[in-house]
Write a structure and sequence with these properties.
The structure is a single chain. This protein is α+β, with helices and mostly antiparallel strands. It has four helices and eleven strands. Strands 1, 2, 4, 5, 6, 8, 10 and 11 form an eight-stranded antiparallel beta sheet that branches. A three-stranded antiparallel beta sheet has the order 3-9-7, with no helix packed on it. It starts with 7 loop residues before the first helix and ends in a 5-residue tail after the last helix.
């Protein structure tokens, strides 16, 4: 009976030793798999436990642990790669969006500038046309006395201009762009204005009741220069209009032909 019995303490010691070696083996395998040196360190761990009857169990467990750890590491690497790819794709998308927005802004600004330039050109052209346009000195009027009409009312013996029918106080306009060279009392012409135009010709407006311009002032087509009346040598309210090649009396030309040559229909 005594020879068949095994000391309790000795059995416990061996069991504890095998368990410790098995656990240590797993831990070693885990550490080795993590650092990538399984091949160089796994053999001593298995050899140390080679005499134990549980060696196959230990080897299988180590392989399972190593495979699990390798799988976890690979999965983690793939996850990190996916995150990196997503971040790169997001950054690229944001960069492309910014570039597209910048290009859209540039195109919009270029279009707006082109439209402003076109509008400015159109306005300048319209102003140029307006300034080169001539108008009648009176709106909705007609010629009541023709050019070169004879009679004792004129010192030269004939009419040096034309008379437009107009009630007193009717607005009188400059027929074209020019500079006022005379504005005030003109003797037989009464209150009168003389304008020098850009083409070198002159126009005169006589018998006005009041004047709206002064000498040296620039005027434009259709601008009011005074009001019609009957001042000076006049038989009643009207506008005396002359066209001249010079500023002085005696240089008159046919006013109707002059206005028509500048596009004014009478």
């Amino acid at each position: 009976m005594a020879f068949g019995s095994r000391p309790a303490g000795s059995g416990k010691h061996r069991g504890s030793s095998r368990l410790s070696r098995k656990t240590a083996g797993y831990a070693g395998i885990a550490a080795i798999a993590t650092t990538g040196v399984v091949g160089s360190l796994a053999a001593p761990a298995f050899a140390a436990d080679n005499h134990s009857s549980s060696a196959p169990e230990n080897g299988l467990g180590a392989v399972v642990v190593a495979e699990d750890l390798a799988g976890d590491i690979a999965e983690q690497a793939e996850s990190q790669e996916r995150v990196a790819d997503q971040a790169a794709a997001k950054a690229q998308a944001e960069a492309e969006a910014k570039q597209k927005a910048a290009e859209s802004k540039r195109l919009a600004e270029a279009k707006a500038k082109a439209e402003r330039d076109a509008a400015e050109r159109a306005a300048r052209e319209e102003e140029r046309k307006r300034l080169n346009t001539f108008v009648s000195p009176l709106d909705a009027s007609y010629v009541s006395t023709q050019y070169k009409a004879g009679g004792g009312m004129w010192s030269s013996g004939s009419h040096t201009g034309i008379d437009f029918h107009a009630a007193s106080g009717t607005s009188v306009h400059a027929v074209g762009v020019g500079t006022v060279v005379e504005a005030g009392w003109g003797g037989a012409y009464g209150n009168n204005v003389v304008i020098k135009h850009n083409d070198g010709t002159y126009t005169q407006y006589g018998h006005m009741s009041s004047l709206s311009v002064s000498v040296g002032q620039q005027v434009t087509p259709g601008q009011q220069i005074g009001l019609s009346g009957s001042t000076g040598n006049s038989s009643g309210p009207h506008l005396h209009f002359e066209a001249r090649t010079g500023s002085q009396y005696g240089s008159d030309i046919d006013p109707i032909a002059y206005l028509r040559s500048h596009g004014v229909s009478l």
